[in-house]
Amino acid sequence: MDNSGYIFNSTIYLLDQYRNILSLIALELIFTMPSVRRRSHFVARLVAGIAAGLAVASLYLFVLDFMQSLTALAIDYSFVHVISVLWYTAMVALAGMLIYFCFDVNPTELVWIMLTAYAAQHIIYVIAYECLVMGFFGHQLHILLRLLIYFVVALVIDTIMYAVFSPIIKNREHLYVHPSWKNCLMLSMVLVVFLASTFINQYNAMGDMQTLNLFSVASDFINCVFVLIVQYMSLRTSRINVEKETIEKLLEQEKRQYEAFKNAVDYINIKCHDLKREIRLMMQTGEFDESYFEDITAHIAVYESFIKTGNETLDLLLTDQNLICIQNGISLSCMVDASALARMGNRDIFSLFGNMLDNAVEYVKQVPEQEKRFIRLFVKPKGSMTVIHQENYFEGELSMSDGLPETTKRNNAYHGFGMQSMRRIVEHYGGSIRVSVSDRMFKIDAIIPNE
Length: 451
Prior knowledge:
2 domains; alpha+beta; five-stranded mixed sheet; Heat Shock Protein 90; two-stranded antiparallel sheet; single chain
């Protein structure tokens, strides 16, 4: 072979290796960029990691020369195939190392990402090379056309992967894969077995590089799709479990807050009863203690802040929120017919309105203009439905996800469950909830059937 032919073939092999490593990295970034927390100097790390990956991929020319020398020496071809398998396995590991270098992932998450990305990447290979290039075009295409076909197929599959997986992992500092050595070991074993099966199917599919074994191709494709489905379902199940545990913790915390506040209100009622006796005593004796009178005035002011709706749980909650609003210079106006909430449990009432008002107070107290620091709450029966409406001043754009606003808090792995808890409660009673922004007003509207 002349020198120009050698250079041409070397270029083809290099482009194919670059295609392989870049495709893996791109898919792994799809499963990490929307969610996983990045390490410091992320861009520099990513650029350096990709450069290192391409540099290592360039070493394939030496591996290829070594395999060709073994073939020339009439070494068993199966041994050459083993070397090829080890090389591509090393490429998968290299792409995984790059992700670990750039993102704050634990080992279990890393193996999950590597397995999922490799399954998606191999689907691209099966469709682009085995089905189209080998099966449809008969392996007669120029190398640049092969790469173009691979790029188009990769773009489609990458888009599908992002559309399917990003809603589950978006806005989370970590994936929902539970970090444990058992899960890590299990996923590692699945990755090894899956790598072996794809290599075997690929070897059988294009054994003589002229004809295509459709059974092996179909088996290869089905295996990859099955792995992706399992990965998706495991991630979705893990997310549901995490959200359920978080909501249960929030409900338990709200229960403790409710009980603590009820005890505080009971104490205030007892204190006010004692104050009445003290006032009568002062009237009888004629003795007047100014400091004691100030104490009385303070307690009466607290008592006057109580909101009466006819529902003890809502009274306690609204009174608590009203005290917080008074302390922060916020006007809380309530028009509540508690009879409309008769079928709701106390914990659900506390959780629904607690989350609703907590979010409103947290935003409004940061508004500098006093006239804009207000919260309005309306609850009333309307026909066979209970209508709940809460509104407060709001500036800016609201980013929605799955019908609910996305949290703007930094610790979004925890925050954001308040809205989900509200929707869960409303839907539990057969109702629906809608969040909107119009005319610089943040609005929550919920309807719940009365029966």
